[in-house]
Amino acid sequence: MSSILILEQILNGLQFGVMLFLMAAGLTLIFGVMGLINLAHGSLYMVGAFATAAVAGATGSFFLGLVAALAAAALAGAIIEIVVIRRLYKAPHLDQVLATFALILIFSEGTRWVFGSFPLFLDIPDAISGPVTLPGGIEYPLYRLTLIGIGLAVAAGLWLLIERTRLGVQIRAGENDREMIAALGVDISKLYTLVFALGAALAGLAGGLVGAIQSVQIGMGEPVLILAFVVIVIGGIGSVRGAFVGAILVGLTDTLGGVFLPELFKLFMENGAAQKSGAAVASMSVYVLMCLVLIWRPTGLFGVRA
Amino acid sequence: MNKLFLVATAATLTAHSAVADVKVGMITTLSGGGAGLGIDVRDGFMLAIEQSGRDDIEVVIEDDQRKPDIAVQLSDKMIQSERVDVMTGIIWSNLAMAVVPAAVNQDVFYLSPNAGPSQLAGQGCHQNYFNVAWQNDNLHEAAGAYANSVGYENSFIMAPNYPAGTDALTGYKRFFEGELAAEVYTQLGQTDYAAEIAQIRASDADSVFFFLPGGMGISFLKQYADSGIDLPVVGPAFSFDQGILQAVGDAALGVVNTSQWNKDIDNPTNAAFVASFQATYGRLPSLYASQGFDTANLLVSALETADPSDADAFRDALRAADFDSTRGDFSFGPNHHPIQTIYAREVIKEGDVFTNRIIGTALEGHSDAYAAECKM
After folding, report:
1. How far B259 CA lies from chain A's nearest CA (Å)?
2. Which helix (H) or strand (E) holds B277?
3. Does B214 touch chain A (CB under 8 A)?
């Protein structure tokens, strides 16, 4: 296996990782600040993708589509926070899971009602489509490089927001002691709505960006949601830095595992069987990673709470 | 209201003649990710029932949500409390395996408009089970035959790691005479194919065969087109049906795929079907819609000569397949699976709409590899 192929696969893993981070960042913020398990986060990802496809289809501008994705997902997030989620903060986790699962069904059938049952068209804008040649002779799609860039920029922006702004101070305080910051006069319900909308907007952005190279269809958010939960458990629940490291780890493990495990199995198995067992073990690899991290650090890499 | 009316007509009919009401149970996928397929089968089926002009056929339609356990519950309900005579509709092979064997053993007829798992074509075949679409391996076998005919010698082949994926690669390999550059199993439901595309780029293949139904195929084709690799791609029709082509867009143009049906097959039944489907539902039919339409017409043709209450006569009437198929010639093999021609199609753009056009025949009068194992 050539070094070019290995480098290309590392880039693929990185790109997958930063997109997972956009999903996981919102999920971990919502869990960290409000103590809420939001299964409907994948639906917000789907809302972002559908909004991008609809607006890009109508106006011809992918950029406007992304703006619409941010707006639509943030709006949907704010609405469900005010109408449904707000009633669940004091409820046990099981009730939260039940209610947000119901939201998944409502979002899915609502989307079908508006857009129909068939997948929507969304393509990469011409300006950033096609491959570019990187130093070392690697041919790599420009769009995927752009995704890596956007993901890293959002991560940096989020770090600035949390470490350097007043809102960030409130978010961090909210993670540590909810009653105390309410007592200090911070409007906690407005803060919650804001954090929820921010998390939703990030999920919507991920949906719009990824929708251009994947299939914009109903139910597209749920597989990503499962991996995003793995990411925040690995990173430590509530930690945005943990979500970033966890997302990159999961992205690399998933991509490189899928490529190299079948190769490894070929050393001592017949070709077809090695492919099948390699693929089967590769699909477990992120969960094995999660188990190993939890054995080593039961609260996750950057987690503080048990 | 409609149901009341049907029950009322049934009551008068039994009073005056021997023609009884026929009850059909349709279990198909109408919600969730795979709903487009079930909706097409249902719409094709109901169009044919409507065009038959018969008002003594009652169709009960239920949504299985693509979940085997729900399909089994629905099937129990249909057989035990609705007392249906004929069942149909299931899209996915794993659901068919959960429902069909139990249903046909309770003396219900099952007409499959889509799923054709090998288990039901070989040793597990049953006299009350008819498949109107294809045996699962068929379109992949045709893809292998097509690859030979255009001289591909080294294929990179890829499918999800689940039973139908294994069947797909087995089917391709059964007919393909060249070498395999690599045989790759992806995860079921995978949406990112960057890793596989990098492997294709690094391989010395001269062609790519893939079976990635539904959304998986949309993702792969878009990413493949963006990667700049220009190896020819061939696959079964499941990633190129009318429902998803619009979502793939230009990335699918020119790709060759194999199918037992296309809207330009030249016969009067097909022309009328395409025109009336488009007029009724406002969209072009897919191969799934044609399969639903043919299934209903097979049922109607059998009802013309026999009643399901006389199981032996009704079975003979089904076996005769005396109906005008959208595919032209149609007949059943000894295991009640179709013997039919499978075409090579190419994705084209007609105005603003992406669709397929037949460019040749991949396999003629093709049966399946399991028929010999079937003892009925």
Report:
1. 20
2. helix B268-281
3. yes
> Tokens in use for B240?
């190129």
Q: Is residue A301 part of a domain?
A: no
Position B279 pLDDT exceeds 70: yes
Q: What is the CATH number of the domain that holds B167?
A: 3.40.50.2300
Question: Token pair of B264, please?
Answer: 């330009």
Tell which A residues from 112 to 141 touch B, by Cβ distance under 8 Å.
112, 117-124, 129-131, 139, 141
Q: Which domain holds residue A71?
A: 7-118+128-296
Domain at A31, CATH number = 1.10.3470
- Cβ B215–A214 below 8 Å, yes or no? yes
Nearest-CA distance from A172 to chain B in Å?
A: 34
Helices A3-34 and A41-59, axial angle in degrees (round to 10) = 120
Q: How does DSSP assign B82-132, residue by residue?
A: I--SEEE----HHHHHHHHHHHHHTT-EEEESS---HHHHTTT--TTEEES
pLDDT at position B78: 95
Parallel/antiparallel/unpaired status of strands B22-28 and B57-63? parallel
- From residue A72, alpha-carbon distances to A23, A52, A300 in Å are 16, 9, 32
Judgement on whether residues B74 and B105 belong to the same structural domain of the protein: yes
* pLDDT score for B17: 38
pTM of the model: 0.85
- The pLDDT value given to residue B339: 95
Are A8 and B219 inside 8 Å of each other by CB? no
**Cross-chain residue pair A259–B199, CB shorter than 8 Å:** yes
Residues of chain A under the 50 pLDDT cut? 306
pLDDT at B15: 39
Residue B14 has pLDDT above 60, yes or no: no
Residue B10: the pLDDT is: 42
Helix/strand/coil percentages in chain A, nearest 5: 75, 5, 20
Residue of chain A whose Cα is closest to the Cα of B224: A213
What are the helix and strand counts (H, E) for chain B? 13, 13
Q: Is residue A303 part of a domain?
A: no
